[in-house]
Design goal:
By secondary structure, this protein is an alpha/beta fold. The chain contains 14 helices and 17 strands. The two termini are 33 Å apart. The protein folds into 2 domains: 152 residues, Leucine Aminopeptidase, subunit E, domain 1, CATH 3.40.220; 321 residues, 3-Layer(aba) Sandwich (Aminopeptidase). The longest helix is centred in the middle third of the chain and has 22 residues. It is 33% helix and 19% strand. The strands form 3 sheets. Strands 7-8-10-9-13-17-14-15 form an 8-stranded mixed beta sheet, sandwiched between helices. Ligand BES binds next to loops. The site of ligand BES has 15 residues, from loops.
Amino acid sequence: MKFEIKDTGFGQVHAVLCYEDTGIPSELDNLEAGLSAKLGSLAETARFKSKSGQVLEYALGKEGGPLRLILIGGGKTDGDQARTLEEFGAVAVKQTITSGFTSLSLTGAGTNEDARALLGAKLAAYRFDTYKTKLTDDQNPSLESVTLVSGSVSEADWSAYSAAAEGTWLARDLMNEPPNVLYPETYAARIKEMEALGLKVTVLGEEKMAELGMNSLLGVGQGSVRESLTVCIEWSGGGDEAPVALVGKGVCFDSGGISLKPGPNMQDMKGDMGGSAAVVGAMKTLALRKAKANVVGLVGLVENMPDGNASRPGDIVTTMSGQTVENQNTDAEGRLVLCDVLWYAQETYNPRAIVDLATLTGAIIVSLGHENAGLFSNDDDLSAQLTDAGKTEGETVWRLPLGPKYDNLLKSQFADMKNIGGPAAGSITAAQFLQRFIKDGTPWAHLDIAGVAWKSTDKSAMDPSWASGFGPRLLDRFIKDNYES
Ligand code: BES
Ligand code: MN
Ligand code: ZN
């Protein structure tokens, strides 16, 4: 599907954003004399009040003009305009994507923020039909192009948003893939393809990781027939300064291991690589828009399986940092992967800041539901930067506390620490575990995205598939607003 900007013209379907307080735009009279008044009385009858989410369709048929008009409610003009515009574009696509019509045009609010309408449209046009062999023609998209009609949005404005949508699409694709198709090796091969965009990709195999002492990560993967891998993705768009490191949990399937998970919904655990998908998607976005910053993405790719060779509760491993960990629950594996990747990142890149993302704990869903990712940080500035980036892009995060009393819960009788805290504050003790692998003076933040990476219900126009693709937009904004001159 094509997404573009033009000064004038119409698609077969034309979508118009209407606000509660300004009503139906009088410019519609340019399409047909008296049209806005006619639509006003139709809206009255049809109870269309331009409330957010409301839709009113109208058939037109004038030679050379649009065949259909869709009025889409945007709520009040003093609402969050970024979200309103995205939702507008998304709803317009949702209404038309399989309608039989092939072209859609959008007019937004008349500002350069209108690029967000096209972003919403692109996010809404996402499909994951790879394994659907029986779709009829009518079930397949008919829409071929979406055009934003605007005099105020530049190509440069749009290409940055378009790159962000591409990163989100990639994160969704990686997550939606089944775990028999996407496992560390095939995942790494897909990342390697991104070298075509100017990224440098290095893959560490099990032998190399054993040499480095990444025994904790290797322990998680040792029950799997798939080789564990760490993949480093470098984007060097800045000067000589140290990079920002983005680190992602890439558990391609989390069965729980010997501490096996219950059966119902275990299939969702193919998405336990959501943190890594966010990082990979963000790296693609940064490369596509040629970000003026140095950023390195590191993802630990493993599969957590029960097996005769799997790690056991009671096992003690020596991590790359030298610290020892008693494994008390093989289902608390994400932190065991991240601790070695975090250490490797610091040893190799000496980053100016580290942000890790992980579908780390079920407990974060208890705390924050599906509305916010959990944020943990040792640095108030970094924390504020991520919170602001999340607000700007509508991928919001909420900070939770860290502290020595929580850290105490990780004390082990036999090793330097154990990998679980206990029933209380599960997301916080997981974050405390990670913090033990952050060197003093390194600004670090951890995003627990277990509640926002996918959803089984409540699909929305902007977010139409199982995988949300949470992360690339937030991370891209975080880099753009803080690390580019
Ligand atoms: N991948 C899970 C966390 C998860 C749960 C993500 C639900 C998304 C939805 C993680 O590896 C895990 O199993 N965590 C355990 C930790 C516990 C054993 C301390 C959990 O949350 O139950
Ligand atoms: Mn687990
Ligand atoms: Zn997991």
